[in-house]
């Protein structure tokens, strides 16, 4: 065993967003095995062994040569320059000086610390909490980001129309109820296991496949509405309705139209539990605009035959039906509409609040939905208070950097983009998560300084001015905890840090000393002392309930602690159904808002006062005849550990794999396994192609997460040779209401790539001298 690696020859507990596991280092080789209680472990843990000591890891602090030589300032050389290695003390002095300069001459309003990203599972070394706590201590605040790339549209519209977003997604219909009660699950966008197998903070039991199987065996019918057959597991034998991407709202409208015109809707439910139905009904029946939203109208829009729509609507009547809408559908232009219309469909069926019925918005989108909540509080690192208070909707970052001082609309407000000088990122990869990456490069070229903490040479790190190497989760101690998983995990340290990598906490502690805020940031605690401190909250919660509350050392030695969970009681929806006067929803009317005075009052054409079919701007046409679905990958979480063996194993010829229908391929002379070029007027990327009939013709699918790998970084619109679809996606908000990410869907053309295949260099460290 190398002296660099700790003697962890026994298996020790650890956790990740994709599963609880244990790991050991034997003769320098990392071994991982899933938690024994997990019925359906996620193989993504198999990315760890090869990733731990991979050359893509960052070994020492680095400063971009141009920034070092010319000082801070806008520079289009970001992402093209070489790096200069620097010792820790020197780099922290340098960065400390730059932070002081920004603080003294521009203040917190010039610092973007939104730093979106999933980072790692431990609750103390949670990069977002660490960076926000640091910026609050050192600057008194920063420009933040609100909402997420996951649910940008839903999380803004839901409070207006249904109430609390967290309650809708986390305290509603559970997998237990699906297994026991649902008679039909109508899943718009499906519930792909690759998504529900991940939960922020960790997950010890992957129950979704088993629950769906149990429901199926009991006789529950599953109907999948999606251009991709794989969006529901094969085991459930779903009927597949392969609609045109982005048209679910039109399909839902036509289903409700059929229910209403055939007298199959639940008018009593609508009268008692909703507001605004009459206004919506006028639109539905065409009294408002002369166009009835019937099945015949919807057929050409959705690509689903009118009779199939009518038949499906009739099958929904008189059964315990659960309507689900995947997050993916709202990650598109007008993404608010399917969220809203799904609720209206469920309301028209009158099943909201019944066990296994109603509206399971986003069930299956992530592992902590559809589960019981823990009944004791978990460990959470306080981020302090952001006294600056300015923010942007998270997906508007490039707009903000490119257009300081300009106005935009968000949730009924007219806001102004701030003038950002310094961007500080820890625990996220905007070159994975943002859209139109060529535009993002231009945006990052505008700032004075870009600082990134990363464990590996992502494209974000390559575009930074100061790159600080962070430890990987396996190299530090932490506590794994998720609000809806009963297992709290003592995450033991499995390996020594790679090279000179440091924990984010230690980096910020070093900087806070240089900025005179060490005590405010560290409160005088070491990492181990913080774990004790954070654990105490859970221990107290257990004590308050008269339950055994092991002290920290006992918990640490045992490795896991099983926490009590709350009841599966249907949450506010059951209570609302039982007595809507006593238990109103937290909406302006206390009811489900089918028409919202508030939203109508905002006056946005892109999100009117009731759900509506709003034709998208981007549709297939001349030059870009195909839809591209850029969805979540199965063999890694987002872009994390893309260099791990499990992720690499899913690629072909080193490239990400795109799926295509054989008919579309044949029309372009493309064969299975070819390398293809996907392009539109924003950019182009290569991918290997897999031909499958399990995709709707006219649609190409390419998962996100392959690391951006420009063939010629000097080019302003380089070819990504690896297969990152975000070079193709459009950087536009869902609507003026939510301004959410629209990365799920775009339009492209595809051709067989006939040139010399460029090498993949995404995982090679950049030039350093
Ligand atoms: P990750 O790849 O998880 O992606 O975007 P996000 O930025 O979260 O990035 C996390 C980064 O943190 C990785 O680079 C990892 O190496 C680093 N990291 C891990 N642990 C640590 C740590 O302890 N410290 C530090 N400093 N770094 C660490 C995800 C986002 O992408 C999301 S949530 C969604 S849902 C969106 N989905 C889509 C989509 O459907 N379609 C498109 N086209 N685009 C999307 N982008 C969004």
UniProtKB/TrEMBL annotation:
Residues 626-741 form the Molybdopterin dinucleotide-binding domain. One of its GO terms (cellular component) is outer membrane-bounded periplasmic space. One of its GO terms (biological process) is anaerobic respiration. Residues 57-513 form the Molybdopterin oxidoreductase domain. Coiled coil: none annotated. Residues 14-53 form the Molybdopterin oxidoreductase N-terminal domain. It comes from the Bacteria. InterPro entries: Asp_de-COase-like_dom_sf, CT_DMSOR/BSOR/TMAOR, Molybdopterin_N, MoPterin_dinucl-bd_dom, Mopterin_OxRdtase, Mopterin_OxRdtase_prok_CS, Prok_Mopterin_Oxidored. One of its GO terms (molecular function) is electron transfer activity. Keywords: Metal-binding, Molybdenum, Oxidoreductase, Periplasm. It holds the Pfam family Molybdopterin_N. Its cofactor is Mo-bis(molybdopterin guanine dinucleotide). Belongs to the prokaryotic molybdopterin-containing oxidoreductase family. This is Molybdopterin-dependent oxidoreductase. It comes from Neoroseomonas soli.
């Amino acid at each position: 065993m190398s002296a660099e690696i700790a003697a962890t020859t026994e298996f020790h507990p650890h956790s990740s967003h994709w599963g609880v596991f244990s790991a050991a280092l034997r003769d320098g080789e990392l071994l991982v095995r899933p938690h024994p209680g997990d019925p359906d472990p996620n193989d993504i843990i198999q990315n760890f062994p090869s990733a731990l000591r991979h050359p893509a890891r960052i070994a020492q602090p680095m400063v971009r040569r141009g920034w070092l030589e010319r000082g801070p300032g806008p520079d289009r050389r970001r992402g093209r320059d070489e790096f200069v290695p620097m010792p820790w003390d020197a780099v922290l002095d340098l960065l400390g000086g730059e932070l002081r300069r920004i603080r003294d001459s521009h203040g917190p309003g010039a610092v973007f610390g939104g730093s979106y990203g999933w980072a790692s599972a431990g609750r103390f070394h949670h990069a977002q909490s660490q960076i926000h706590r640091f910026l609050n201590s050192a600057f008194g605040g920063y420009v933040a980001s609100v909402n997420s790339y996951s649910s940008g549209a839903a999380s803004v519209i839901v409070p207006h129309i249904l109430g609390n977003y967290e309650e809708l997604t986390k305290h509603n219909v559970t997998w237990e109820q699906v297994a026991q009660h649902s008679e039909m699950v109508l899943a718009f966008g499906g519930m792909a296991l690759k998504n529900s197998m991940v939960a922020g903070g960790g997950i010890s039991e992957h129950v979704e496949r088993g629950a769906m199987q149990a429901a199926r065996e009991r006789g529950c019918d599953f109907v999948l509405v999606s251009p991709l057959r794989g969006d529901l597991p094969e085991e459930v034998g779903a009927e597949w309705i392969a609609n045109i991407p982005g048209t679910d709202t039109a399909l839902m409208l036509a289903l409700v139209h059929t229910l209403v015109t055939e007298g199959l809707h639940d008018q009593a439910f609508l009268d008692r539990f909703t507001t605004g139905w009459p206004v919506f009904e006028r639109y539905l029946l065409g009294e408002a605009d002369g166009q009835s939203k019937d099945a015949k109208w919807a057929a050409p829009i959705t690509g689903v035959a009118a009779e199939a729509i009518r038949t499906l609507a009739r099958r929904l009547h008189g059964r315990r039906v659960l309507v689900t809408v995947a997050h993916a559908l709202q990650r598109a232009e007008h993404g608010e509409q399917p969220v809203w219309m799904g609720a209206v469909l469920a309301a028209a069926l009158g099943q909201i609040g019944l066990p296994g019925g109603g509206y399971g918005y986003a069930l299956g989108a992530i592992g902590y939905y559809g589960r019981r909540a823990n009944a004791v509080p978990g460990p959470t690192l306080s981020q302090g208070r952001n006294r600056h208070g300015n923010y942007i909707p998270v997906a508007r970052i490039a707009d903000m950097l490119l257009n300081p001082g300009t106005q935009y609309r968000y949730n009924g407000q007219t806001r102004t983009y701030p003038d950002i000088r310094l961007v500080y990122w820890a625990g996220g990869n905007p070159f994975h998560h943002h859209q139109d990456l060529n535009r993002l490069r231009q945006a990052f070229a505008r700032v004075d300084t870009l600082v990134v903490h990363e464990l590996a040479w992502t494209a974000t790190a390559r575009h930074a001015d100061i790159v600080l190497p962070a430890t990987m989760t396996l190299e530090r101690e932490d506590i794994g905890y998720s609000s809806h998983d009963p297992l709290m995990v003592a995450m033991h340290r499995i390996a020594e840090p790679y090279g000179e990598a440091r924990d984010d906490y230690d980096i910020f502690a070093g900087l806070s000393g240089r900025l005179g805020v060490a005590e405010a940031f560290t409160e005088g605690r070491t990492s181990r002392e913080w774990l004790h401190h954070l654990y105490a909250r859970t221990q107290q919660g257990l004590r308050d309930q008269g339950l055994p509350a092991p002290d920290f050392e006992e918990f640490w030695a045992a490795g896991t602690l099983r926490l009590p969970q709350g009841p599966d009681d249907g949450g506010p929806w059951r209570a609302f159904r039982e007595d809507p006067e006593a238990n109103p929803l937290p909406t302006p009317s206390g009811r489900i808002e089918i028409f919202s005075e508030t939203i109508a009052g905002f006056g946005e054409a892109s999100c009117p006062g009731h759900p509506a079919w709003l034709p998208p701007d981007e549709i297939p046409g001349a030059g870009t005849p195909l839809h591209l679905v850029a969805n979540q990958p199965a063999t890694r979480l987002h872009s994390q550990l893309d260099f791990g063996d499990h992720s690499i194993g899913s690629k072909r010829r080193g490239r990400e794999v795109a799926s295509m229908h054989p008919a579309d391929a044949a029309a372009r002379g493309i064969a299975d396994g070819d390398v293809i070029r996907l392009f539109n007027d924003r950019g182009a990327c290569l991918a290997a192609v897999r031909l499958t009939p399990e995709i709707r013709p006219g649609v190409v699918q390419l998962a996100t997460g392959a690391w951006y790998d420009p063939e010629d970084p000097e080019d302003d619109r380089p070819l990504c040779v690896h297969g990152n679809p975000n070079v193709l996606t459009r950087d536009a908000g869902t609507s003026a209401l939510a301004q959410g990410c629209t990365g799920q869907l775009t339009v492209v053309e595809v051709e067989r790539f006939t040139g010399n295949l460029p090498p993949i260099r995404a995982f090679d460290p950049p030039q350093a001298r």
